[in-house]
Every structure is written in structure tokens, then in C-alpha cells.
Amino acid sequence: MRREADGRWIAQGLLAALMLLAAGCGFHLRGSQGDFAALPPVLVKGDGAAATELRRALLSAETPVVDDAAQARLVVTIVDERRERRASAVGTTGRVQEYELNYTARFRVDDPAGAALAPEQSVTVQRSYSFDSTDVNAKSNEEDGLYRDMVFDTVRQILIRLQAINAGLQQPGPAGAAP
What we know:
The chain is α/β, with parallel strands linked by helices and 179 residues long. The protein has helices at residues 2-24, 49-60, 136-170; strands at 42-45, 65-66, 74-90, 96-110, 116-130. The chain contains three helices and five strands; from the N terminus they run H-E-H-E-E-E-E-H. A hairpin with a 5-residue loop joins strand 4 and strand 5 (116-130). Helix 2 packs across helix 3 (136-170). It starts with a helix and ends in a 9-residue tail after the last helix. Mean pLDDT is 87; it is low at 175-179.
């Protein structure tokens, strides 16, 4: 009886220590965007993966995502998304051993009247993975997972830029004159 109680305390202590260690190193669950302050209403234009994930991330940050520019304070347009894959390492037999993946999203931020709040800019994320021609399905799944993570990272960077643009709008002065 006492051994079970001791074992339970040890297991709970180890679990608590593991949770503290994970939180201390910055670990977060896949797909979580972290802590972002709510923004004023945002209209997201585009229908690709970045636009979809940006809408989801804004909603999870308790930012209203609207469908009408007249209701928005920021209008984000995902202009283009591009996925590229290239061989980055080839073995002595001439077979690809490693691929490099690039994901680029170009976007711009306007006010509801269409005036640019930020010029068109891009976010590029890069990953690489080892390739095994005997396990093509698993490597294909790995590649899909990497692209999903790259979209999350891209959206995270767009959110950081939106936070900065919004902070600039809050500043008094001619450049940051709030509407």
C-alpha cells in the first residue's frame, strides 16, 4: 500500500518536472500560434492555406474576422503562396538523399479605403528533410506535415507584423493618425 502511494507521488513529481521543463524551453503544441493580443477587426482576402490559417489564428486570438471591408480596420490580402521543393543532397549513386522545402507567402495590409498601411512583403520559411526512396509514402506524409508547419510559421510572422502595424496606428502623429 505504501509502495503504491510512493510510486504515485514519484510519477506525479516527474510529470510536474517534465511540464515545467517543456514550458521553460518554449515548447508549444503544433499549430498553436502563441500569445497574440487581439487586433481590431480584420478582413483576410485570399483562399489559400495561409489565408485560412490566418483567419483561424486571428479568431483564436479573439480578433473579429469580418467579411466586409467597411467593418474592418485592417485588410490583409494574401497575394500569392508558393511551395517549392528541390534536391539539396545527392548520394554517390545519384539518388536524392535530402530535399529542401520553401514556402513563401506574399501579402499586403491596407486600410478599409484601400490605402496601403504596409507595402507588399513576403515571408519565406525553409525546411529540409532526408529522403528514403524505399519509404515514399512516409516521406510524402513527412513533407505534407512540414508544409503545414511552414504555413503555421508563416502565419505567426504575419501576425507579428500585424501587431506592429496596429501598434503604429495607435501612435499619435501624422504617420499613425488613427481613423
